[in-house]
Design a protein that fits this description.
Blueprint (H helix, E strand, L loop, with lengths): L19 H13 L11 E3 L19 E4 L5 E3 L12
Antiparallel strand pairs: 1-2, 2-3
The chain binds zinc ion.
The site of zinc ion has 8 residues, from loops.
Length: about 90
């Protein structure tokens, strides 16, 4: 299989070449999915599959790499991670 417009590399897989819009989206995405949903730790290990971002449909983007929390051992996907963890909850 050969394609000129798809690059198979972790986190930079996209249509065409990476754009500012793409970089901005990814930065925001990882800000929004930063913490373990169970304990709120940002420390984790993760698999590195590149999920393609469709610039026409960015809201449906899901990073489904498997994360293992280094704090509590919870296993979840990157998309399951949360932006803020409320310790008071
Ligand atoms: Zn955790």
């Amino acid at each position: 299989m050969k394609s000129d417009d798809i690059v198979f590399m972790p986190y930079i897989t996209t249509y065409g070449k990476p754009s500012d819009e793409y970089n901005k989206f990814m930065k925001q995405y990882y800000e929004n999915h930063k913490y373990c949903p169970k304990c709120g730790s940002s420390s984790h290990s993760s698999t590195y599959v590149g999920y393609r971002l469709n610039m026409q449909n960015k809201d449906n983007y899901k990073d489904l790499n498997t994360c293992v929390c280094r704090q509590c051992g919870n296993v979840h996907t990157t998309h399951d991670r949360i932006k803020q963890f409320n310790y008071e909850a």
